[in-house]
Amino acid sequence: MPEAPLPVTDPDTLFRQSHDEYSRTRFTNTLLNHAMMNLRYQVWDSYEQAVKPKFVKQKGREPESSREILDALHDNTFFRTYSAFRYNAQEMGALSVIPAVERVAPQINETVKALIAHNSTGGTLRLNPDMKYPKYMTAIDAHLTPGGYWTENAQDDASQAMILQGRRIAGPAVNKKRDFGNVGLSVGTWISRTFQDLKPRRILDMATQEGKQLSAYHQLYPQAELYGVDIAAPSLRYGHAKAINAGMDVHFSQQNCEELDFPDGHFDLIVSSFFLHEISVPATKRVLAECYRLLSPGGVLAHMELPPHKSCTELQNATFDWDCQYNNEPHYASFRSQDYTALLVEAGFDAAKCHEITVPDVGSFPEDKYEQFLKGEVEAPFHGRGGWFVFGGRK
Ligand SMILES: C[S@@+](CC[C@H](N)C(=O)[O-])C[C@H]1O[C@@H](n2cnc3c(N)ncnc32)[C@H](O)[C@@H]1O
Description:
By secondary structure, this protein is an alpha/beta fold. It has helices at 19-59, 66-73, 77-117, 135-138, 159-170, 183-194, 214-220, 233-246, 281-294, 314-326, 332-336, 340-347, 370-374; strands at 124-126, 202-206, 225-230, 250-254, 267-273, 295-304, 354-360, 387-394.
């Protein structure tokens, strides 16, 4: 007898907010966007016009570090408003999606389980029920989201992944001027245009969460086997179900990227995005050593990350490192203070084959300018404003 069709094929369709919940999520998304995209410039103006002159008057010199700038900004009204908007939008945004997830958590988990049981792709999921989570993961709720990445709300839980994804599913900020597009597609496009001889057989996305960046690599390198590793199980279950639903073969596994179980030289391309700033510097060093070990000769590494302190003004650094103090991102500043190429060299890479570059976001950068960008004639916009900072190397 043919198997009964699945009642739900996309777990996202189970996420249904009430009118008020939906309004709350959209409002907080918009407030966060407004704070980050607009208010931050008012903070900068206010710093230049009022805060810095006051500091100079008191100390007879300008602030010398982002830390001093953040301390000096502390009593400034614009800074306090900006900070209050950002902090509360972040926290309230997460809280606004939780009731809609909790109402259907058993159905989410059942649906994800059923999709995995019906798996019609060649994708796989390996979980580690004995995972020992590092303290940098368990000590805080990352990005002020209750439960962070790793919490399991029930056996075989995928609902925590939906809590992490709810704000995206509900929709972007109202009147968002630019869609920054897909990081995977932007970085992947740059890789494919820069390393034209690279024909990856296997691609690894580290800290893949639910694997959303992998679809870009599937598009760019349809022949390649795709691997997504993350330390947290709920997003891997959810991502595996989403990949099955999308008909995409991905091999997901729950592992700590500091020590992976793949053989040496297994991957021709290793990527990550929004990952390394979340872990401690010693952990980053172990991850980079693993990247070197796992790359085949000629293989390419590309981590999309926050730009380092050295490439930004101290005022920009103060704005980035705000997250360290107020957004449960304690490793932001220590990671950004590193020399990324020096870290790569320490991991085994040849400095002459390392790159630190901001690549254009393909969703907003004019296509006809891309050739000029590749020739070094035009620069990509700043990280997060139409560009994405990338560092890595070729083995
Ligand atoms: C901000 S999310 C990145 C999401 C994804 N890369 C993207 O582009 O949307 C950070 C991810 O890093 C994962 N993570 C943190 N520490 C890890 C580790 N040591 N090994 C593997 N994954 C880790 C978290 O579980 C989380 O899914």
